[in-house]
Design goal:
The protein has twelve helices and nine strands. By secondary structure, it is α+β, with helices and mostly antiparallel strands. Helix 5 packs across helix 6.
């Protein structure tokens, strides 16, 4: 395997580890250990691949996770959210939040419940599709029905893409094509193959150039990382699932409806897992255009109500 692919796999493992670890454990030393590189070499490789330093990535992760908690977990106190993000006090959290977003955590929560409206990097605010989608929301939502299902733990062979979720010129189609060609070459592609798109970032929060999307298929042990694909393990989760038919703009509006309208009325809250999109191979055209897919939001029942 070429050096570039080996480095890419190591960086992917570090990013996956960081997203699933407590914020206060993400030191440069710990991240370099995950990559099996010296701190100096790891910093250079990570910055080259990700266009931000490891510590900048870790700091952004903990702030974006706190933003998500403020929006989607009204049962959590601001103090507890700050501690969970690795801050030593609520004041330290408030100061850091104010520096990054220009607003206090409390004011942000009051203005951005369940959907980001006043966030500097909100891609939906700048999308040319948004006004038309908002105007047609009632017609889109007719017939939408959410079901709860359990997703088992899954070993995923994937191709990672980092670009704006709302960018019509994104290379996501290339990621789909790369994955499909790899699966065909390795006799893993069938008419009923399920493609999973893992969406760990929020288009309303994460800067566009850092939004991550993993396109993958479930594989058994014995399929290993190679020049094309990386491997990650997706934990089991309870998912609120919505089947949507139409082009990408309709899928985006369905995500907004699922999070900002269905979720607050459901008696459930978001669980600490990435969002998913699942597609059948027959529902994707040759150019990567999606005809039908399931939006999968990880949820759990509310257990307490602390303001």
């Amino acid at each position: 395997m070429k050096t570039e692919a080996l480095q890419r796999h190591r960086i992917n493992r570090v990013m996956n580890f960081a997203r699933n670890s407590p914020s206060n454990t993400l030191s440069l030393e710990r991240l370099a250990d995950v990559a099996c590189l010296s701190q100096y070499h790891f910093s250079r490789v990570f910055t080259h691949h990700c266009q931000e330093t490891p510590l900048a990535f870790a700091a952004r992760m903990r702030m974006e996770q706190s933003v998500s908690s403020l929006m989607y977990h009204p049962d959590l106190s601001i103090t507890s959210i700050g501690f969970e993000a690795g801050f030593s006090s609520s004041q330290a959290f408030s100061n850091a939040f104010l520096r990054r977003y220009g607003i206090s955590p409390r004011s942000f929560r009051n203005r951005n419940k369940y959907f980001p409206k006043e966030v500097p990097y909100n891609q939906a605010s700048f999308s040319i599709e948004t006004p038309q989608l908002l105007e047609n929301t009632p017609s889109f939502t007719r017939g939408w029905h959410v079901t709860l299902k359990n997703m088992p733990a899954t070993r995923l062979a994937y191709v990672r893409q980092r670009s704006a979720y709302y960018d019509p010129c994104t290379d996501r189609d290339t990621a789909f094509s790369t994955l499909i060609n790899w699966a065909k070459q390795n006799a893993l592609w069938k008419d009923d193959t399920v493609i999973i798109g893992v969406c760990p970032d929020n288009a309303g929060i994460t800067p566009p150039q850092f939004c991550q999307y993993d396109v993958g298929i479930p594989v058994e042990h014995g399929v290993d990382e190679d020049q094309t694909i990386s491997i990650q393990n997706i934990p089991a989760a309870t998912l609120a699932s919505l089947t949507v038919r139409g082009p990408l703009p309709v899928l985006r509006m369905a995500w907004k409806w699922l999070i900002s309208e269905w979720l607050p009325q459901s008696g459930m809250v978001l669980a600490d897992h990435a969002f998913y999109e699942t597609f059948r191979s027959r529902d994707i055209t040759e150019d990567g255009c999606i005809i039908e897919g399931d939006l999968c939001m990880p949820v759990r029942m509310k257990t307490h109500d602390i303001k």
